[in-house]
Design brief:
The protein contains six helices and 14 strands.
Amino acid sequence: MKKLKWALGCLSLLAVSGCTDDDYDPYYYDAAYYDPYYGAYDAAWSYSWADPVYGYWYSSIGGVLPQSTVSGLPQDSVDVNAAAAQLAANASSTFTPAGCATATASGATVNYTFNNCGAQVALQQISGNVQLVLADNQGQLSINATSSNLTINGAPYNLSMQITGSPPNGDQRQVTITSNSYSPDRFDTRSSQSTVTWVSGSGCFTLDEQSQSTRGDRSSTTNVSGYQRCANQCPSAGTVTSQTSEGTFTTTFDGSNTIQVDSPGDATQSYSLDC
């Protein structure tokens, strides 16, 4: 089996390096490697914002109860101002170390400033600014998140996502995410639709996602299925399939800190995971 011998550093600097591949454009390997990171970032933001106050949104604010959805009766509206105030008050405990994040609420808007923060599951070295705008989506809370001057793990990151929660089902939590988030160092565009589920307080989530991304004149459609990750651990399960004009690129997660991206032919590329 032919093995590609590129170093990860070479892949990280494709735009300015002279690295070449005789068989497949390195972008397609990158799509299968980086897209699960960005999906996991989306999931981790959602977990951080939703898990500590999920029941508060749906049980206390506006009296929105799970049984109202089951019965089909009209739901009360969500008090988005109260939800925003609760999120701002939780910033010091949601992001670590203590004091690294400040947040202020004004009406239904929350503005965060991060200084080298971490958050549950998959977010490390967060610096910059994030704004949340909360809305009532037919009795369910939705959040629109955008960023300015944001970096994650030392790389610039454009955060642009909308999160919509579902009423609690016991300890089960679920949100759906529409996202255009990505690192401009890696992709030119990215859009995704995902579902994130978890058990309250578990520090773990499961992600299922489909996304499209581009870099220059290259594009891919990537599916992430059954991606599972817990705090302070590498992804323990999940498969990634990237459909491209050059064929299908795939990888799987098994709890180790490396993955191998397989090409449509015999070529492979190994990557180290930051986990």
